[in-house]
């Protein structure tokens, strides 16, 4: 069970207070109507599944109800950082653009 | 029976306090301080069970958590039945009732036993898969017999009478294991004032010190342990947990400790005590001082009762004053095990021989053995044990220096107990739980903890530092490091002192050679619990299983409840040798939680019965109960399902409730519908983005139905939203979807459109909602309000008004889910019941009839109104359910779902569409879920057109009604489809409009 630092509450809390909400940094296309089916499908369904660092969207559901991001190592489950929506992660893959 | 193996004095038991217990119905006696295992051995019980596969007799082999054989069923009553209890870890108490879990009719005389003798070659690994797979239809029959023959414990058929608990703990340092390393770590750390938990699985802390002959700081080891514990217990900041197994090491230093609070006292806890408790610990730093397990050696017939671990023999003598036999042969690869022979001799029994596999052992213990006049046979091994239900002799032969071949002649010796030691395997289980790969050490002849990302340290035998001196030293060091890492200042402290022991190197030997090949020789067991032999592992490698993980799964090695604590390293060594690889090349399997089995009670704690899941009640709940309502679970809500009167069938009730509503007036508790208060200057724009329809022009005082979709275009929720003010709306959601919808609004606001000024708040529980519905609804409401104009002009359909109802401030919404004239009366939840009762009173002259969710479903289905989640399933978009009218593509913002429902697959022809279904036989009700076909005589598999989503008998219409998905259904109105059912019937139905009642919608607008 993870021990997660909520960047809004500024405290570590048990995972039970949080809920994972999928991969982070998947912005909604600004002009959906002009997306091709392939582009929309990419946005809707396709996610990376990296071995190593992964940016995830979480919500402090039983707490401040704020969404925020976590950079987590999918091998060791180590949480490298948590950061607010709109902020950039400090930890990234070499080939990754966030 | 007398305790024939009990020594007259000694041990840590109380010889003055006898305890009575029964084993397999036999009355036996032990002493206070005994485990069930030590008591059974004292009473001369050799056989404690039959083996899993070959049904061979098995006896107690170990003295601790690693015991593979002595798994007993405990419990004096049906309600207290507990399976899978390791006799070595269960304290004896007065009146304990234990039985063996396999062997029929008894473990001593087992009907399946012949298999173990003659069936060797007939039951190789994969035997069950290979033999019983065909014909597949017979598997159920085979399985019953196999399970019965194999024998497992059983769970109680009655509810557990005991109370279990969970407790959350935060520790600065958690020390696992209170042996020499753990105790010294705790002593070093205690003065810091940090929160320290020291947990140990045994009934008494001290670990190996309790049966060690060594001196620490001039004191006998066991006395030193007692005074160390005394010292620690004087610190308020140190929590000492005995009988508490740290069972799991999870991510981010979260560990679970399974504490048995009363299992050592009685069959079930008394006086409301907690029987077992799960501590859920978040620790800043962890020191693993888990020690090590002795490895048995693998040789012929090494499973005969009377063959034990060398250290176990010592423990039973020194700690429990039990010498389980008379004539001992000890086989060892190391110095450490000599102690067993010394203890045996000191107990006044005969040591037949110490068989040392090393060619030229030179440690201090060899000299000691010689000076005691004990016979030491070097460069040799016990290649085979003799005996049936108890070992009665051994065959000893010289072996070569690497332990691969028998070199000398084979000599028989008589004995009735055989102790073996292949060295010690560090207990690395917990360090593996978080995914850390252990590392092989040739020096240790075992795996030690590998790299980890946890805040974890380890001390003592877990690191392969087996000597007492190094355990005390490492414990002290790591205790200081842990406490400093956790942010505390503390002075250095020197380790407790003990005399160093001159030990010779141990031999890396696992599998003793035999004069015959492994497959032709007597059975040589590796995993006792799952009956995995050395030849089975060799066979697995010959059959092509090269990965140790595959060998494990093929042979079932390490799959027992003991997780291969005694057998795994031996198995890996045999596999490695067979594959011509080294052990590190072959690799290891990974231990997973839990270290030892945990009861379900301890896991669930208090979350049982009515506390299993929260139940939500409306303010009117008590009234429903008093009226005899039956309830339906909707999410966590208890909603009235229907209100049967005496003598009514469910259909009678539904008919009465539905008819009364359409003819006069019905009342529904609609408080459970999700209610979200939405405010802010961008609230209206936000609604336009999350709903498929238009919100720009909804005036204050008006309500509108809204349909919500996902980005894939599929229907996600629906409900009515009212405009309370220019920047203020009240959204209603489905009962089950409320939390999901709120989260949905939040995620879009917070991650996509943070610039919008809008706020969401759940107000579901703030309001109590009574919906009155039917042609007399207005007359009822008129009696209860004098400040709300109710005439059709002043209060139109889809309007809402504030006012006073039954003297209470209310919001009244004129919206309808029945198609009748309806008012949803919302009052502050605290007034909910009072207002409800006033409405009932006012409505009595109109025979106002409460109806539940079932009648609500029928009434809405008569109108063709959908229920999201019943008539939709996440794969239908608004056009599929003929709700295109609720989709406004012309909105400036590309609302959620717009792009999704334009995907090629969403606009293709031949999609399934929601239609009404009228059966040819009017009172035939098609089962929900039934599949439509065009031709019911088509051979299976038929072409399926879609399933029935809603289906009821409608008393108002005097016939059945249904809705369902049909491929291209909207263009097939008037055509016939068939529903072939599992029972052979075929129901014929005509595709029609789903609006069966009042198609023009006039009744709700009167």
User: Which two chains share the most extensive interface?
Assistant: A-B, 31 and 24 residues
CATH architecture of the domain at 163-292 and 426-485 in chain B: 3-Layer(bba) Sandwich
Q: Estimate the strand proportion of chain A.
A: 25-35%
Instruction: Write the CATH architecture name of chain A.
Output: 2-Layer Sandwich
**Beta-strand content bin of chain B:** 25-35%
> Low-confidence parts of chain B lasting 5 or more residues at pLDDT below 50?
none
Global structural class of chain A: mainly beta
Provide the residue-averaged pLDDT of chain A. Answer: 94
How many strands of chain A? 6
The helix tally of chain A amounts to 1
Roughly how much helix do the residues of chain A carry, as a percent range?
under 10%
Domain FAD/NAD(P)-binding (chain B): 172-426
Pfam families (chain B): Fer2_4, GCV_T, GCV_T_C, Pyr_redox_2, SO_alpha_A3
Keywords (chain B): Aminotransferase, Oxidoreductase, Transferase
Protein name (chain B): Sarcosine oxidase subunit alpha
Structure description:
- The complex is a heterodimer of chains A (98) and B (1006).
- Chain A is mainly beta and 98 residues long.
- Chain A has one helix and six strands.
- Chain A has one helix at residues 37-45; strands spanning 3-6, 11-14, 19-23, 53-59, 67-73, 79-84.
- Chain A has a four-stranded antiparallel sheet with strand order 3-4-5-6, with no helix packed on it. Chain A has a two-stranded antiparallel ribbon with strand order 1-2.
- The two termini of chain A are 27 Å apart.
- Chain B is of the alpha+beta class and 1006 residues long.
- Among the domains of chain B are: 14-133 and 144-150, 2Fe-2S iron-sulphur cluster binding domain, sarcosine oxidase, alpha subunit, N-terminal domain (Ubiquitin-like (UB roll)), CATH 3.10.20.440; 163-292 and 426-485, FAD/NAD(P)-binding domain; 296-422, FAD/NAD(P)-binding domain; 674-765, Aminomethyltransferase beta-barrel domains (Alpha-Beta Plaits, 2-Layer Sandwich), CATH 3.30.70; 860-895 and 907-1005, Probable tRNA modification gtpase trme, domain 1 (Gyrase A, domain 2, 2-Layer Sandwich), CATH 3.30.1360.
- In chain B, 22% of the residues lie in helices and 28% in strands.
- In chain B, helix 7 runs parallel beside helix 8.
- The radius of gyration of chain B is 37 Å and the shape is elongated.
- Chains A and B meet through helix 1 of A and helix 20 of B.
């Amino acid at each position: 069970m993870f021990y997660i630092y909520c960047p809004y509450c500024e405290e570590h809390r048990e995972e039970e207070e949080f809920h994972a909400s999928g991969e982070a940094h998947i912005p909604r296309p600004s002009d959906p109507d002009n997306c091709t089916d392939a582009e929309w499908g990419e946005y809707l369904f396709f996610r990376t599944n990296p071995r190593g660092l992964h940016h995830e969207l979480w919500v402090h559901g039983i707490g401040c109800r704020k969404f925020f991001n976590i950079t987590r190592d999918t091998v060791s489950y180590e949480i490298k950082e948590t950061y607010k929506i709109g902020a950039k992660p400090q930890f990234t893959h070499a080939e990754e653009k966030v | 029976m007398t305790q024939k193996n009990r020594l007259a004095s000694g041990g840590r038991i109380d010889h003055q306090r006898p305890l009575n217990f029964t084993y397999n119905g036999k009355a036996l006696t032990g002493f206070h301080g005994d485990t069930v295992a030590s008591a059974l051995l004292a009473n001369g019980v050799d056989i404690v069970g039959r083996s899993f596969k070959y049904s061979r007799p098995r006896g107690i082999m170990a003295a601790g958590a690693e015991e593979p054989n002595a798994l007993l069923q405990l419990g004096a009553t049906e309600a207290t039945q507990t399976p899978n209890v390791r006799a070595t870890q269960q304290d004896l108490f007065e009146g304990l009732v234990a039985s063996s879990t396999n062997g029929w009719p008894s473990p001593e005389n087992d009907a399946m036993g012949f298999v173990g003798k003659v069936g060797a070659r007939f039951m190789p690994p994969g035997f069950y898969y290979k033999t019983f797979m065909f014909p597949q239809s017979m598997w159920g029959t085979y399985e019953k017999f196999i399970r019965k023959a194999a024998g497992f414990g059983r769970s109680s058929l009655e509810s557990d009478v005991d109370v279990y608990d969970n407790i959350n703990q935060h520790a600065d340092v958690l020390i696992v294991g209170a042996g020499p390393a753990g105790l010294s770590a705790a002593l070093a750390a205690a003065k810091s004032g940090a929160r320290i938990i020291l947990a140990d699985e045994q009934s008494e802390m001290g670990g190996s010190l309790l049966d060690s002959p060594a001196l620490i700081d001039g004191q006998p080891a066991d006395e030193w342990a007692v005074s160390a514990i005394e010292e620690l217990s004087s610190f308020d900041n140190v929590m000492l947990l005995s009988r508490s197994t740290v069972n799991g090491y999870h991510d981010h230093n979260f560990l679970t400790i399974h504490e048995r609070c009363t299992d050592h006292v009685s069959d079930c806890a008394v006086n409301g005590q907690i029987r077992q408790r799960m501590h859920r610990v978040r620790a800043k730093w962890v020191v693993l001082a888990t020690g090590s397990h002795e490895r048995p050696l693998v040789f012929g017939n090494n499973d005969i009762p009377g063959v034990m671990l060398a250290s176990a023999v010592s423990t039973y003598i020194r700690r429990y004053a039990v010498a389980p036999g008379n004539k001992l042969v000890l086989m060892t690869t190391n110095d450490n095990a000599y102690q067993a022979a010394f203890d045996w001799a000191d107990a006044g029994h005969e040591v037949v021989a110490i068989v040392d596999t090393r060619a030229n052992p030179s440690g201090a213990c060899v000299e000691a053995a010689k000076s005691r006049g004990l016979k030491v046979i070097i460069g040799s091994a016990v290649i085979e044990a003799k005996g049936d239900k108890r070992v009665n002799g051994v065959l000893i032969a010289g072996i070569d220096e690497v332990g691969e071949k028998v070199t000398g002649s084979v000599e028989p010796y008589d004995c009735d107990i055989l102790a073996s030691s292949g060295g010690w395997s560090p207990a690395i289980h917990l360090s593996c739980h978080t995914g850390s790969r252990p590392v092989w050490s040739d020096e240790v002849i075992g795996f030690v903890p590998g790299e980890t990302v946890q805040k974890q340290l380890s001390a003592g035998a877990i690191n392969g530092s087996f000597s007492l001196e190094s355990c005390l030293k490492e414990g002290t060091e790591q205790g200081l490091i842990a406490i400093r890492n956790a942010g505390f200042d503390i002075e250095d402290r020197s380790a407790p002192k003990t005399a160093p022991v001159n030990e010779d190197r141990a031999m890396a030997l696992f599998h003793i050679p035999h004069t015959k090949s492994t497959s032709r020789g007597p059975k040589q067991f590796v995993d006792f619990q799952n009956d995995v032999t050395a030849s089975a592992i060799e066979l697995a490698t010959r059959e092509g299983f090269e990965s140790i993980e595959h060998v494990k799964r093929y042979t079932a090695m390490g799959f027992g409840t003991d997780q291969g604590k005694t057998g795994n390293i031996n198995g890996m060594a045999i596999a490695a040798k067979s594959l011509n690889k080294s052990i590190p090349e072959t690799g290891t399997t990974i231990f997973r939680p839990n270290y030892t089995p945990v009861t379900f009670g301890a896991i669930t704690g208090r979350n049982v019965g009515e506390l299993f899941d929260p139940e939500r009640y409306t303010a009117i709940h008590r009234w429903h109960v008093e009226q005899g309502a039956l309830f339906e679970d909707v999410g966590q809500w208890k909603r009235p399902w229907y209100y049967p009167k005496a003598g009514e069938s469910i259909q009678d009730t539904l008919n009465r409730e539905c008819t009364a509503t359409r003819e006069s007036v019905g009342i529904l508790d609609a408080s459970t519908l999700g209610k979200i208060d939405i405010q802010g200057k961008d609230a209206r724009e936000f609604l336009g983005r999350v709903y498929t329809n238009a919100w720009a022009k909804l005036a204050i005082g008006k309500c509108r139905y809204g349909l919500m979709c996902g980005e894939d275009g599929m229907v996600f929720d629906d409900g009515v939203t009212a405009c309370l003010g220019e920047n203020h709306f009240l959204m209603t959601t489905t009962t089950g979807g409320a939390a999901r919808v709120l989260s949905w609004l939040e995620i879009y606001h917070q991650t996509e459109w943070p610039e919008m000024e809008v706020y969401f708040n759940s107000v579901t529980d703030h309001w109590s909602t009574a919906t009155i519905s039917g042609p007399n609804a207005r007359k009822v409401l008129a009696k209860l309000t004098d400040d709300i104009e109710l005439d059709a002009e002043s209060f139109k359909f889809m309007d809402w008004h504030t006012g006073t109802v039954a003297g209470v401030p209310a919001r009244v919404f004129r919206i309808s889910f029945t198609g009748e004239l309806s008012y949803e009366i919302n009052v502050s939840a605290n007034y909910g019941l009072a207002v409800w009762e006033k409405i009932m009173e006012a409505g009595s002259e109109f025979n106002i009839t409460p109806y539940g969710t079932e009648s609500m479903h029928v009434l809405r289905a008569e109108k063709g109104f959908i229920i999201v989640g019943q008539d939709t399933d996440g794969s239908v978009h608004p056009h599929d359910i003929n709700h295109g009218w609720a989709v406004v593509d012309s909105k400036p913002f590309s609302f959620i779902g717009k792009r999704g429902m334009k995907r090629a697959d969403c606009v293709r022809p031949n999609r399934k569409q929601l239609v009404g279904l009228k059966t040819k036989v009017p009172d035939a009700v098609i089962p929900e879920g039934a599949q439509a076909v065009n031709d019911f005589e088509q051979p299976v598999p038929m072409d399926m057109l879609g399933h029935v989503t809603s289906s009821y008998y409608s008393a108002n219409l005097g016939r059945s009604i249904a809705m369902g998905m049909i491929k291209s259904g909207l263009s097939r109105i008037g055509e016939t489809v068939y529903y072939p059912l599992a029972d052979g019937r075929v129901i014929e139905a005509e595709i029609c409009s789903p609006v069966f009642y009042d198609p023009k919608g006039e009744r709700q607008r009167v």
